[in-house]
Amino acid sequence: MPTKAPVSSKTPAATGGEPAPQEPRENLLVGDDWLRANLGKVVLIDGRAQSLYLKGHIPGAVNAEWTYFTSLKGRPGDRGWGDLLPRAQMAKRLGALGIDGKKPVVVYADRGGWGQDGWILWILRSMGLKSAKILDGGFTAWVASGGKTDKWPVKPKAVSLSLPKPDDSWNVSTQWIVDHMDHLKILDVRTKPEFEGARFFQERRGGHIPGAIHLPFDQLVDGSGKLHTNEQLREIFHAAGLQEADDIVVYDTAGVRGAYATLMLRLAGFTKARNYDSGFQEWAGNKDLEVATGSGK
């Protein structure tokens, strides 16, 4: 059992609030045909790296990498590094992208990425913004369907955004995990080498949280990058040892892949899934917390 750690500086409160009911699939995903018919009626966000965005993006999309939403003060492993920005600052960042809380938002990334589309949608849900969805299959699916692309960067028109009441059920802190460890199922969605001890992102230590179940997040999509059906997702999660009634905490290195997997768990009916946004970076950076190596479960 790990010893208690200082409470994370996570924003929002990371109290592990009561999860919301399961969302219908249509509340989370749109297809390329739908987007093609609604371009100009939505705020379109490309969550990929800027280098990829500049090589080609969906017309009208603004670019926002994962670091746009986070605090990078200090270095990886420091408490609070990579956490979401404070709520007031987040409102300004979201408003700068053209998000006003009324116009629908569509987010996309690409096959082979880190699930940045799910990360941004998870942020919006955490902030209480519900009118947002993911383009299923991302940029790959858009191009495969004959969608037009553009290389000129889009400068968004900043708007004022007043955030509604936050939904604290999406996010938990290091302290919350320590306090509830005895009844949690911990899901590690990083790659196999990372889980077993490889350090690719300046982690202070390699390995995983003791007792964690390993399920790489890219197993949640098919070969084209589109999300598996709800039934297929349930089969994958059941095979990993998860049940719908479980209290599940998902983590990766710094929250991005974990956010994507948390969304898909809830979509499949595992409504008590939460993301550990501080991720393994913060856990491994706390020398008082135990880390395991090897294949684990």
Number of strands: 9
CATH architecture of the largest domain: 3-Layer(aba) Sandwich
The H-and-E topology, N to C, reads as EHEHEHEHEHHEHEHEHEH
Helix amount, in percent? 25-40%
The number of domains: 2
Low-confidence stretches: 1-14
Label the structural class.
alpha/beta
Q: What name goes with the CATH superfamily of the largest domain?
A: Rhodanese-like domain
Biased composition (Polar residues): 1-12
Region (Disordered): 1-25
Pfam families: Rhodanese
Organism: Aminomonas paucivorans DSM 12260
What does it look like?
Helices cover 28% and strands 10% of the residues. It is of the alpha/beta class. It has two domains: 25-144, 3-Layer(aba) Sandwich (Oxidized Rhodanese, domain 1); 168-285, Rhodanese-like domain (Oxidized Rhodanese, domain 1), CATH 3.40.250.10. The strands form two sheets. Strands 1-5-4-2-3 form a five-stranded parallel β-sheet. The model is unreliable at 1-14 (pLDDT under 50). Keywords: Repeat. Residues 1-12 have a biased composition (Polar residues). Residues 1-25 are annotated as: Disordered. This is Rhodanese domain protein.
What are its keywords?
alpha/beta; Oxidized Rhodanese, domain 1; 5-stranded parallel sheet; 10 helices; 28% helix
Brief sketch in words of this structure:
This protein has 297 residues and is α/β, with parallel strands linked by helices. It has helices at residues 32-38, 50-55, 87-96, 116-126, 138-144, 174-180, 192-196, 230-239, 256-267, 279-285; strands at 29-30, 43-46, 62-63, 105-108, 132-135, 184-188, 213-214, 247-251, 273-275.
